[in-house]
Specification:
Blueprint (H helix, E strand, L loop, with lengths): L1 E5 L3 E5 L12 H11 L12 H17 L2 E2 L3 E2 L2 E2 L2 E21 L2 E4 L6 E3 L8 E11 L5 E2 L4 E2 L10 E5 L23 H10 L4 E6 L1 H4 L3 H8 L3 E4 L11 E6 H10 L4 H7 L8 E27 L4 E11 L4 E2 L9 E2 L2 H20 L5 E8 L7 H8 L8 E7 L10 E4 L6 H12 L3 E2 L16 H4 L5 E6 L7 H15 L15 H18 L14 H5 L7
Parallel strand pairs: 9-12, 12-13, 13-15, 17-20, 17-21, 21-24, 22-23
Antiparallel strand pairs: 1-2, 3-16, 4-5, 6-7, 6-14, 6-16, 8-15, 9-16, 10-11, 16-20, 18-19, 22-24
Helix pairs in contact: 1-8, 2-8, 8-13, 10-13
Length: 549
């Protein structure tokens, strides 16, 4: 046994490394996969569309060609290639009628420009809200373990909550929520969930580019199209009747009409003494919703282990993107999702090829392409709640989402600030290749809660989402950061996220070689990675320890 230091944060023991046979990843093969999956013919890979049908067929065909075995659901005594994922599909029909009323005057709100209202996730076929009072609730956080309650027992039933994005610590970088690194309380998904617990009629998140970590285009494109959710027994427990975002400028005007200063109230909201502030304004909404339950699919390939086939390592990536949506300035309506996440699927397929063509590992390896990540990690959430292979005997999950296309890097990272033995192993593999681990450059973006490893992590399974480095061999961190900013501003969740012949995918091949070595280490050892002793996920993992004896 030896000890590796994980990001300089803590120590965890792990078994001595097993030498990995060299794996060769062809940049041209990777590029070809992305080119196909991100082509207009796949229509942006939206769930429950013709684009899904083409995507599933392509992934299955490529998994077969790579030599993988079907690893999906069992039917007729045989495993298939897919796992059915039932989802609630909801889309606003026509143009929603939305307005604020201040000083007795009605102010219409343009969907997509001033406001971005999501289709109802409650299963309702019509949303009608008439003159509901608005209340500013700060960051909308109720965290007893931090002695924090933005609601203070105020009755918010039937009201519209106006809430800031991110955590109370974001502006100052210090406080009760760990500084700049976003907690789950900072995610917009949490804001909606807490609004439902408070009995609100709706939640409007105020968009600001810094704390959101993306611009209004991303908000608009992600929220005004067709929405999906897992099928819930009681959807009202997780969703208010109306959910949406408003532009910061709209919020500033709204507060001013109530005789309030937005910046002053935002400052007050950073204190645990904050109390909800009623606005002298009301909100109305009226729109029809086409809501129905559909079936999407996860795709699953497998290499069966020789000695411990009941023990499973998972590589994952989401196959979906936003489909066809609102036109951009060029009139393009297809959200191709080349980097996000055709690169991850290409990585998954070629990783499957590498393991299927090499010596069979001791443990089984599953290659899981999940649906509806863009709609809230729904495919991975469904798999985690309905695993095809027991979570207690799942060694770990290695997720790939938006892999770098700008050439080799001297470093690498993971989404979020996780502390676990699986990261120790990855750091060791990186070090052997002369690559340094870099803690996530922008923890305030809440990356840990935005990728498909999270549903597994919260159930205790050691899980990471790999991130290519920003210290590029050609251009260093200056070029790496500049390219990342340009992607976020100009292509992320926009039609411009398209395949390019100019990409340098030798860096992606380098990344995959390292992740293959990590998987080989885990699949041919008796190691069971765990979370650090102080991790919020440790107890869930330890609760299943007897299954791994």
């Amino acid at each position: 046994m030896k000890t590796i230091v994980s990001a300089g944060l803590f120590l965890l023991p792990f078994a001595a490394a097993v030498a990995a046979p060299p794996a060769s990843f062809d940049p041209q093969r990777l590029s070809n996969h992305v080119k196909v999956l991100a082509s207009d013919a796949f229509e942006g890979r939206g769930p429950a569309t013709a684009g899904e049908t083409k995507t599933i067929a392509y992934i299955v065909d490529q998994m077969k060609a790579a030599g993988l075995q079907p690893g999906g659901s069992v039917a007729g005594g045989k495993r298939g290639w897919t796992q059915d994922v039932p989802l609630l599909r909801a889309a606003i029909e026509g143009t929603p009628r939305l307005s604020f009323e201040t000083d007795g005057q009605s102010r219409p709100l343009a969907q997509g420009d001033q406001i971005a209202v999501r289709a109802a996730m409650t299963g309702a076929h019509h949303v009608s809200i008439a003159n509901a009072p608005l209340v500013f609730v700060g960051y909308g956080v109720k965290a007893p373990e931090r002695n924090w309650d933005d609601f203070k027992g105020v009755d918010l039933h039937g009201k519209i909550l106006v809430v800031l994005v991110n955590d109370p610590d974001y502006e100052t970088g210090q406080g009760d929520f760990g500084g700049k690194a976003m907690t789950y309380y900072g995610r917009w998904t949490y804001k909606y969930e807490e609004g439902a617990r408070q009995g609100a009629a709706g939640v409007l998140v105020i968009h600001e580019t810094g704390p959101a970590s993306y611009g209004w285009n991303t908000v608009k494109n992600s929220n005004t199209n067709t929405q999906f959710d897992i099928v819930r027994a009681n959807p009202a427990s997780a969703h208010t009747p109306m959910e949406g975002w408003i532009q910061r400028s709209v919020a500033v005007d709204l507060f001013r009409a109530s005789g309030l200063d937005f910046e002053a109230l935002k400052k007050q909201a950073q204190s645990r003494d904050f109390r909800p502030v009623p606005l002298k304004a009301r909100f109305s909404a009226d729109y029809a919703v086409d809501a129905k339950v559909i079936t999407s699919h996860n795709v699953v390939g497998r290499v069966v282990g020789v000695h411990h086939p009941d023990e499973t390592l998972i590589y994952s990536a989401h196959w979906d993107h936003l489909g066809v949506g609102r036109p951009d300035a060029r009139g393009d309506t297809i959200y191709n999702g080349a980097v996000d996440n055709a690169t991850g699927v290409a990585s998954l397929l070629e990783m499957g090829r590498a393991f299927a063509s090499g010596p069979r590992p001791d443990r089984s390896i599953v290659f899981l392409a999940v649906t509806a990540e863009e709609k809230g990690l729904l495919g991975s959430e469904y798999y985690a709640a309905n695993p095809l292979y027991p979570l207690a005997k799942t060694v770990g999950m290695i997720n790939t989402d938006a892999i770098g296309v700008a050439g080799p890097a001297r470093n690498f990272s993971i989404s979020g600030a996780a502390r676990l033995g699986l990261l120790d192993d990855l750091i060791a593999e990186g070090r052997s290749r002369g690559r340094a681990f870099m803690p996530e450059a922008h923890p305030e973006a809440g990356g840990f809660y935005r990728s498909d490893h999270f549903p597994m992590a919260k159930r205790g399974v050691p899980a990471i989402s790999f991130e290519s480095g920003n210290d590029l061999v050609k251009g260093g961190t200056e070029r790496g950061e500049a390219l990342a900013r340009a992607y976020t501003e100009q292509r992320y969740h926009q039609p411009a996220d398209e395949w390019s012949a100019d990409w340098d995918l030798t860096g992606m091949a380098q990344d995959l070689n390292m992740l293959h070595a990590l998987g080989t280490r885990l699949a041919n050892s008796r190691e069971w990675p765990n979370w650090s002793a102080d991790s919020e996920f440790r107890a869930a993992r330890d609760a299943t320890a007897t299954a791994r004896k």
